Amino acid sequence: MSDQSYQPTLSHLRAFVSIAEFRHFGMAAARLGVSQSTLSQALAALESGIGVQLIERSTRRVLVTAAGQRLLPHAMATLEAAHRFMAFATGKGESFTGPLRLGLIPTVAPYLLPRLLPLLGDELPELDVHVVEDQTAVLLDRLRTGVVDVAVLALPTETPGMVEIPLFTESFVLVVPAGHELAGRSGQTPKVLDDLPLLLLDEGHCLRDQALDLCRSADARPASGGDTRAASLTTVVQCVAGGLGVTLIPEMAVDVETSRTALGIARFAEPAPGRTLGLVFRSSSIRSEDYERLAPLLRKLRDETVTVRSRGRSSAAAPARP
Predict the structure, then answer these.
(1) In whole angstroms, what is the distance from residue 81 CA to residue 287 CA?
(2) Which position has the higher pLDDT, 91 or 232?
(3) How far apart are CA 166 and CA 294, in angstroms?
(4) Which of 9, 18, 94, 259 is spaced 20 to 30 A from 270 at the CA atom?
(5) Angle separating helix axes 10-22 and 25-32, nearest 10 degrees
(6) In a 3-state reduction of DSSP, which class is residue 278?
């Protein structure tokens, strides 16, 4: 039974949110800079005050209960509101400050973060960024429960209660072993995938689904990649380098993934197949205006990358001066 006179404190709510995020009392306590006993007491006070068990703890794992999942977004919103109050009280209400838990899918994070994090440090120095890399379904679940604030995902997600801001569309590129007959060729149609041994990421990766959708749309029937399984683009590309097959990767991954070993690249005719990336966040978030400010920064990174790559190709194609 709840205590009708009880009013949760911000420290009680922070304890709950931090435990729900890390699913680990030690890590949650370290994040908040308190002892585990203090953290446990804060959670116990919150659960006792509202008369609801929020966290289920055993010797092996920490789980968020069904009631905890339902109340977590409200706890997050309360903490966000408190942060905004203090930001305006100290004259920083118009700036993007405080913690930001940014989710990215694995086919974006390694290629975007090396440029995004320094840019955020320059443009939004008072932002405290925490990166969460995971597959789309997991990130959407964490968005729903408030564990992640905003995520960069392939659109559309078609998820109720979410706002999606398209950022840019990038093409897919076919990666083949060095010396392959398609290496260096352009103007290919998706039908070229017919009978090629196409290597795909494990199930759960949206890029896998996009590659299969492309094959179906072109009525292409690629050969099976056998029992080869990979959880990252790096592993898939190295399998291609070893002669196990071919694969599709997004344009942003080309420079990184083809710099490690000898590989061939084939490009599709325009309009080339690809994907649209965007920012996704809860429609109920009070920081929606802040998240919308991230979109121009991400588009800026994309524009800079395209410009540099175009210059590189022009330079490579120019005849040598005498």
Answers:
(1) 9
(2) 232
(3) 12
(4) 259
(5) 130
(6) strand
